Predict the structure.
Amino acid sequence: MRATSQSIAAEIADRIASGDLSPGERVPSARGITRDWGVAIATATKALAVLQQQGLIVSTPGIGSIVASPAFTPSPSLSTATVVPTAIAMADAEGIAAISMRRIAAELGTPTMSLYRHVDSKDGLVLLMIDAVLGEDSFPTPSSDWRADLEVSARLQWAAFQRHPWLAGVMSISRPQLVPNGFRYTEWCLRALAPLELSMETMMYISVIVFSHVKALATDFAFETEQQQDTGLTADEYMTTRSTDIAAMVSPSDLPLLASLVHSDDFDLDLDALFEFGLQRLLDGIESWISR
């Protein structure tokens, strides 16, 4: 018989009761449940919500859902200022798919409907989350150097995406979210470019393609975070486990350049280095185009 959210929650609860899972120990993530029980992500998140409502687990930033300490008590206060950080911490730990009004209510120890006094919907909550994390950093005084100022904007965005791996996946280029702190980034880029006396359309294109570079690379942070949670392996550890398979697939006769790379230790795909390399080459191209 196919597992249900209630049956999965009961199995995990039994493991907690038996001591197989101790207070502070991490329980299976939503994606781990999806993999191990063969259910949809919605079923997995419901199972975790049931456990939270029972007070058996709590969500911990950077770790995920853990077995609650017997001393855990629900938060007595409820406001937008408590709902949004709780949702951000949950998304940081388990991904944006783990977010639901029911789970957040369970985490805060309050009825689900009470959240709607402070947040109008899940979509509205996500907008508040985006605005909150984009507002974590402040811009320095402009340097009057358009390239240096665009680097500042790109690096602040990169840092925000690293702190919150889910962020890149919920932000859109073609349908930008209407959040005040997102507008601050755009305004910063436009001010940096304004002295060049380009058209507004051109300045917006430059702003968008710089953001696109950051966002595109940042999407891999979310994937990597999920994979580490599900497998327990870092990217380097994963590549080590697959090195024999990769070497077997990359034939020196058919793929000599790739084969030389596989059999050497000269290359390490570091996302930070890749971000900086891509950013500089992108700005080189813009600078060259402006000079012409």
Remarks:
- Residues 200-231 form the longest helix (32 residues).
